[in-house]
Automatic annotation (TrEMBL):
Keyword 4Fe-4S: no
UniProt KW keywords: Developmental protein, LIM domain, Metal-binding, Zinc
Any GO BP: positive regulation of transcription by RNA polymerase II
Cross-referenced InterPro entries: ISL1/2-like (IPR047169), ISL1/2-like_LIM1 (IPR047244), Znf_LIM (IPR001781)
Gene it is expressed from: Isl2
Origin superkingdom: Eukaryota
GO cellular component, one term: nucleus
Protein name: ISL2 protein
Chain ranges of the LIM zinc-binding domain: 5-67, 68-129
Subcellular location: Nucleus
Organism: Lophotis ruficrista
GO molecular function: cis-regulatory region sequence-specific DNA binding; DNA-binding transcription factor activity, RNA polymerase II-specific; metal ion binding
Length: 131
């Protein structure tokens, strides 16, 4: 379809022999497909992510839009194991009591007060209290 498609990046007609199709309805000049944040060229060798009509490299997309640890605010990698408390997600090493710093392990009783995790001892939960 060269000559008929409009570039999603610059809006110009694509008359080049090659174009890049990012999704079923978005086509780009090869030179126009760049990360909206860092400007890195995005092609068949670099994963491309779309958000609100803009293209991003994997690093910037994760940094801007990925789920972040409720404690350290860093993004998660696909191999990270996580702990969850209500709607908060934590790296394993970040899942610690805010008062004493003890790492909380699966099965430990804790309290979530706003964004702070508190172990049983620092929250003062009774021995037969809820987790």
């Amino acid at each position: 379809r060269p000559g008929l498609a409009l570039c999603a990046g610059c809006g110009g007609r694509i008359q080049d022999p090659f174009l890049l199709r990012v999704s079923p309805d978005l086509e780009w000049h090869v030179a126009c497909l760049k990360c909206a944040e860092c400007g890195q060229p995005l092609d068949e060798t670099c994963t491309c992510f779309l958000r609100d009509g803009k293209a991003y490299c994997k690093r910037d997309y994760s940094r801007l839009f990925g789920i972040k640890c409720a404690q350290c605010r860093a993004a998660f990698s696909s191999s990270d194991l996580v702990m969850r408390a209500r709607d908060h997600v934590y790296h394993l090493e970040c899942f610690r009591c805010a008062a004493c710093g003890r790492q909380l392990l699966p099965g430990d009783q804790f309290c979530l007060r706003e964004r702070d995790l508190l172990c049983r001892a620092d929250h003062g939960l009774p021995l037969d209290g809820p987790a």
